[in-house]
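Hi U.,

Before I forget, here's the chain from the pilot set. I'm dumping it here mostly so it's searchable later in email.
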Amino acid sequence: MKKRWAVAASGALASLALIAAAPAASASAPVKFRADGVHIRAKATTNSSSLGLGYKRHSVTGICSIKGQVVSGDMWWMKVKDNSTGVTGYVNQSLILGTGGGGEIPKC
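Structure:
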């Protein structure tokens, strides 16, 4: 009887280890650029290099938010992935529309 219990316990522990090792689900959400030609920056500041330009027609995913340089009264920047170009970087939230129909964007 002890042998069966040990095998069952080791199986349960292995299952728990797999669950603990699984990555947490991300809370990214679809968003849109407010204008055409929006600079996607390497850091959350307009002094940072532009990695590419975003356009209203592009498919965009909001990844997370971070405090940065104030632009148009907004200190929050969103890390985004422009799915149309593959560029990932930061855009001031004053240039972003929506957070995916009420989806929450976590802090970076």
